[in-house]
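Appendix C. Worked example: NADP-dependent oxidoreductase domain-containing protein
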Amino acid sequence: MMASSKASMSSLAARMKLKSAHDIILPNTIPKLVYGTAWKKERSADLVYQALKQGFRGVDTAAQPRHYQEKLVGDGIRKAIAEGIVKREDLYIQTKFTPLSGQDKDNMPYSIAQSIPERVHSSVASSLANLNTSSNAEDSYIDCLVLHSPMPSLPETYEVWKTLSGYVPNRIRALGISNTDLDTVASLISDMDIPPSIVQNRFYPATHWEVELRKLCHENDIIYQSFWTLSGNPQLLRSSVVENLAKDAGVEREVALYCLVLGLERVCILDGTTNPEHMRGDLAGVEMVGSWADGENKVRWQQALQDFKGVIGQA
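Step 2, the predicted output written as C-alpha cells:
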C-alpha cells in the first residue's frame, strides 16, 4: 500500500521547503531525516529499499565509487517505486559531485584528462543515469546536487558551481555544498546567481557545532544538513539534557539528540542506520517527540531546547 505523503506531521517532523535563486521556493521539499548511503557497498540497494519501506523519503548518495554505490542506490529506489511503496514526486534524492582529491583515480565518473567543467558534466550525466526512475531518461532529475567539498581554490569552486548552475532548475532542482567553511558559503551566497540551498557538514565539538555557520545559513534560508550527529557526539548523548528529554518523551537517547538538533531550525539530519528496526524507530521517535512538544509539553520542550543550546554554545 502506498504511504500517504500528505499525512499530518508534528512541526518537528514536518518536511521543509527548499529555497533557490531569487527567493524562488522550490516545489520539492526535504524530510527532516535523510537516509545516508556512504560505505554501504554491495548492501546499498537493499538498505535503500528497506529505508524507503520503513518510511524514509530522502536519500543521500554521491558520484564517488570509493565510498558510495550510486547505481545500487538507484536500484533500491527503483524497486521501492516499482512496488508502489513510494512515488518519485514524494522523494528527495540528493547526490554529489566529488572533486578529484576525493576520488579513486582508477574508478571515478570522469577522466583526469578532462577540464573542470567537463568533469562536472560527466559526473552529472552518470548520476542522472544511475538515479533515473523514469522510462524516459530525459525525465530524470536530481533534487539537490551537492559539491562534496570546496575545490582547492575559490575560483575553481566558482567554476564548478557555475557549471552545476546550468542544470538548475530542470535536471537539478537545487545546489548544495558539503565539508565547507563559513567563508566559502558566504562567498557563494554573495557572488553566485544560484546560492546554496543546502550546507552539509559534520555537527560535532571540533567545529563548535557550527554555531556561526548555522547562523549564516538561517539568515539566508539555507538548510543545514548534519552528519556524524551520533558518532561525533558521545558526550552529548550522555548529557543530562539529552537524558532528561529521552525520559520525559519516552524515547531512546539517540532519538532525543536527533530531536534537539532538529529543534535548532532549518536543520535536517543524515541517518545511516543499517537496522530496519532502527530506521522505523528513528522516524517514529522524531514524530513522537514532535507530538509531545506540540501538545501540553511545549514549555518543557522549549526549556530542553534552551538547555541544549547552552551546552553547544549557541546563545
